[in-house]
Structure formats: C-alpha cells, structure tokens
C-alpha cells in the first residue's frame, strides 16, 4: 500500500472510531443546542464578504463534495444573504482555475460552463444588489418564487437539462411537506455520484421549544422528509461517513448520495 492509500485508510479508521463512540452524539447535540440558543451561531459567519447561514463544518463537507463531484450546476433553494451562493460559485471558480492550470488554457468566468442557480421566495433588494455586485456574480443566477411552485420547478428543470453533473442543496422552508416536495422536484436532477444535501435536518434532534415561532419542529422537518423520501427512492443513500467525521453538522442524515 502506498503512503497516500495508507493515510486514507487511517482516516477511514478514524471515522469508524468516531461513529462507534456512543457518547459523542449527545455531547455534540448539547453543544449545538447551547450555541444555537445563546448566540444564533449559524448567523455569525461570512464567505467572501457575504453572510452565510451555515456551520463552518458543513462548508468543509461541501468543499470536499464539490471537489469530488466537479459539478457544472449547483442548484440551491434558500438564498437569504447570498453567502451560500457565493460559496458555491467560488468553489466552481477554483475548479475552473484547476482545469485551466492542468490544460494550460485561460479562464473567462463569463463563459464558464460551471454555474450556480439560487431560488428564494423573497430575495431582498439589498441582498440581490450585494450578490449582483459581487466578483462571483457572473456565475450566479437567481430565481424569485417558491421553490415548489410549478413555474419555478419548470425553469430549474429546463436549465438543468443542459448540464452534466448536478449538485442540489435544499435550505429554504424546513417543514416536512415543503422539503418532501423539494426532494420530489429536485432530487431527480442530481447526477449519479453527486449529492442532494438537505440542510437543517438537525431540527428533528432539538427540543421543540427552540422552534416555537416556526412552522417546523421535531416530527415535522427536513429529516422526517428525507426519511419518507428514501422509503421510495433507493437510488439515494445517506452518506453517514460525512456526519460521523463532522460530528458538528446541521445536516445529520441530510447528505444524500445518488448511487444509481
Ligand atoms: C436558511 S435561509 C437560506 C440560507 C442560505 N442557504 C445560506 O446558507 O446562507 C432560508 C431562506 O429560504 C427562503 N424561503 C423560505 N420559504 C421558501 C420557499 N417556499 N421557496 C424558496 N425559498 C424560501 C427564505 O426567504 C430564506 O431566505
């Protein structure tokens, strides 16, 4: 075995050890509950200057997925301030840069075949303006409307048709019915070997009081939608290695890999 394979095997062993330790999930949940109630932890970060409502740990996982999949289209529901769109666009820019270095060609971001498509029911004017003024803007396209409305779904399908490798991220309304409808609409667009990442499945594991002002909560959220979707969609499986290695994640059971 060469040293690279040896290191990879060691990492796999680490992940298995983390998965087997039964005390860790409780400690991780306690920590996430505490930081979520004391200081809305997920609001505290930015990506290239735009607020991004994610845990840094999940961004690390997304970076690894994007590198492995090398998508030409990333579809995201839930834009908010645009941080996750800028994150995805910047990862695609790096893929283009790596291609250019390998092939000795030049990069023109305006004609890149790698793009991000964001959908939000309410793109606030100041957020739209900041996203459109961002250096990554040429790779970003935004649609305003509900992610499950037939007109939006039709437009997204039309755009995805021309793409070879598609990655989907669901991060809008986190109710069971909404996420299930998003999965039905967008998961079929995911290419084999790529992922549908469903954020905020963590809601299922948190106390109900945390969401008293929200339409979702334990029993009615993104994770319950994932579980129901998987009952009839064996082409996807939960990539548990990701949550085991992250430990801290808003998407337990939410990293869905398309296997066929
Ligand atoms: C958690 S934020 C998205 C955060 C963003 N992905 C990020 O990482 O920075 C959720 C967003 O979903 C949007 N949203 C809520 N209901 C929606 C719907 N039915 N369709 C599309 N977007 C929706 C909200 O307007 C809000 O901007």
Can you offer a commentary on this structure?
The chain is globular, with a radius of gyration of 18 Å. It starts with a helix and ends with a strand. By secondary structure, it is α/β, with parallel strands linked by helices. It is built from 9 helices and 9 strands. The protein has a 7-stranded mixed beta sheet with strand order 5-4-3-6-7-9-8, sandwiched between helices. S-adenosylmethionine (SAM) binds next to helix 4 and strand 4.
Beta percentage is 5-15%
Count of strand segments: 9
Query: Mean of the pLDDT scores?
Result: 96
Low-pLDDT stretches are none
End-to-end distance: 30 Å
Largest sheet: 7 strands, mixed
Shape: globular
Query: What small molecules does the structure contain?
Result: S-adenosylmethionine
Structural class: alpha/beta
| SS summary, helix count | 9
Q: Secondary structure elements and their pairing?
A:
Layout: H1 3-20, H2 24-39, E1 45-47, E2 50-52, H3 56-69, E3 73-77, H4 83-103, E4 115-120, H5 125-132, E5 140-144, H6 150-161, E6 166-170, H7 176-186, E7 195-198, H8 222-231, E8 236-238, H9 240-246, E9 255-258
Parallel strand pairs: 3-4, 3-6, 4-5, 6-7
Antiparallel strand pairs: 1-2, 7-9, 8-9
Helix pairs in contact: 3-4, 7-8
Residues 52-54, 77-81, 83-84, 119-122, 146-147, 171-173 line the site of S-adenosylmethionine.
Structure summary:
This protein is an alpha/beta fold and about 260 residues long.
Name a few traits of the molecule:
260 residues; seven-stranded mixed β-sheet; binds S-adenosylmethionine; 9 helices
